[in-house]
Amino acid sequence: MLDAGSALRDAPWLAVAVADRPATAVSARIRLAAVLDEDGARGAASHLLSRSEDVHWEDGDVVARRVERLGAVELSVRPLSAPDSGLVRQALLEGLRREGLGLLHWTREAHGLRERLAFLHRVLDRPWPDVSDAELLERADEWLEPELSRARRRADLGRVQAGQALQRLLPWATGDAARLDELAPERIEVPSGSRIRVEYGGEQPVLAVKLQELFGLRETPEVRRRSRGGASLYPRADRRRSRRIWPRSGVRVTGRCGRSCAAGIRSTPGPRTRRRRNRRGTRRHGSDP
Questions:
Q1: 227-232: long-range contacts (C-beta < 8 A, 24 or more apart)?
Q2: Last residue of a domain, one of 145, 180, 215
Q3: Is the pLDDT of residue 97 over 50?
Q4: For the chain, how many structural domains are there in total?
Q5: Does residue 195 share a domain with residue 147?
Q6: pTM confidence score
């Protein structure tokens, strides 16, 4: 730092002979210096001159530039049109760590596959892979190649089909990959003939289905857990008809139903109906004991 009235303040380069910094000061004060031009600086400190390719993730994308430095001073910075592919790959991985795997292209099916694999890993552990963010980034070489090495910028990451890439982590070597649809089916067929998507995002798999489509259902669908019992799949509330479905040994329905619906399903009047009947002094019909 120079004094405010110093004639050296506008000089682009200085050869500093004496400078000091008190213990409480942020920067040093220049006591003695001489004006120097860039050529003189290059000649005096030629051993500190370096040129490098600087490729990193900055402001949401890959930045590639060629930098010439004299020590810590940047002499020139130019865009790099053909950066080293290894440096670009490291920059893209840095971007994925900072901003998350959402930079990839995730379809509904891809999210579903990841949730199914997470469910199987939680229930059965090996050979089903851990698909947490940390583990997927750690195993990028196994499931994001060759797309990652071909990518050059953020937009290229957005073209990587995450669902297709995740399939590379399936336990193909042990043959267990062929059992994915058996152990964690993507869809389950209900008595109406519809094939309903199973949701694996929560602690327990959920089959969100209209009550009418379950008429004739004799057993609650299950996802197999080998020797660890069954994980029941249960219908969600049909909000348009004010019904709730409970995950029990027999599926229980509460709300307006009108009459018993199907085998394994019992109907009971809702709270409002029971209160009205109690006020009228009438006998309650169809309620659980």
A1: 228/123, 228/124, 231/123, 231/204, 231/205, 232/204
A2: 180
A3: yes
A4: 3
A5: no
A6: 0.64
> Tokens 């959402």 appear where?
102
CA dist 257 and 211 (Å) reads: 10
For residues 96 and 137, the answer to whether their CB atoms sit within 8 Å is: yes
Helices (H) and strands (E) in the chain, counts: 10, 13
| Sequential DSSP letters for 45-83 | TGGGEEEEEEEEEETTEEEEEEEEEETTEEEEEEE-SS-
What does the alpha-carbon distance between residue 55 and residue 44 come to, in Å, rounded to a whole number? 29
Q: Which residue bears the tokens 């990451």? A: 157
Q: Where are the beta strands (DSSP E) in 106-194?
A: 187-189
Taking the C-alpha atoms of residue 102 and residue 97, their distance in angstroms, rounded to an integer, is 10
Q: How far is CA 276 from the centre of its chain?
A: 49
φ, ψ dihedrals at 224, nearest 5°: -70, 145
Task: Choose the final residue of a domain: 112, 147, 180.
Answer: 180
Q: How many CB atoms lie within 10 A of CB 271?
A: 9
Domain membership of residue 69 (yes or no) is: no
Q: Tens of pLDDT along 178-222?
A: 999 888 888 888 888 888 888 888 777 887 777 788 788 777 666
Question: Residue 219 belongs to what domain range?
Answer: 185-280
Q: Which residues is 102 bridged to in the sheet?
A: none
The answer as to whether 84 is a domain residue is: no
Of 195, 193, 224, the C-alpha closest to 207 is 195
Q: CA nearest 209: which of 246, 231, 252, 238?
A: 238
